[in-house]
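Hi C.,

You asked whether I'd gotten around to modeling the 267-residue construct. I have! Everything is below, sequence then structure, no commentary in between.
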Amino acid sequence: MLFSWVDRWYGEGEACETALPETERTSAQTDCRADHGQLFPYRIGEKLPTMHSEPPSNSAPFRVLNFCHTMASANKSNGYEDVASVFITGRGRNSSGVGASVVAGWSQTLPGGGTVLDLGCGTGVPISQVLIEHGLKVYGVDASPTIVAAFRARFPGVPVECAAVEDSDFFARTFDGVVAWGLFFLLDAEVQRRLIKKIAGVLQSGGRLLFTAPNESGSFPPDVMTGRPQFSLGYEEYRKALEAEGVSLVGTHRDEGENHYYFAQKM
């Protein structure tokens, strides 16, 4: 049975029902806690060694972007600017939300103090927060001005950009890791492929990528929070797209909320 992936965004003690009124969820029927067990049960081949690296050569002091590039940024938020208040009071405040434990495990494969680009960062909770707590330097990107403002209020010292992820200025940098939780399947197929190419370009040698998207290919029921379409390239196409850019798929995982994770590394 297929569900909107937003249904799994609400962690322990929070609602994750399958229907929404316009402004808020009204019942709590399903426990969507993330898997706290083995992180990588379906590994492909041997685990690749963690590649340590020096800080990026372009590590000049960052400039906090206090505005969206244009009003088009809000239009490219895939509907999340329209439901920002609901999102912020739900997943946007849950530090132990779905995905936190998996990202925490993934962060241990990165060099200490390394840099991570969080695409579709939302409020920074829980994904950016977990990375920061593990000593990593996070750069966030999100296209919703309201949600970005919430990120800045929560993490005032962390660089965050209000822009469509595929248009981010942070792609002029390099990173030890890139994470895109709950993002890819909200983008058009062409944008997903273009984003993979951009991610490969900013990952340092040995750099790691974590993203979520259905294992199956094709269209999925509309996102229950925004009503927007969802589309996955599917396992094989993601693998091929990554390999074409010099990035190897090294593992997958499905958590208790049925979120499917892809783990990749740049050669």
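If it helps when you're writing up: The chain is about 20% helix and 20% strand.

Thanks,
B.
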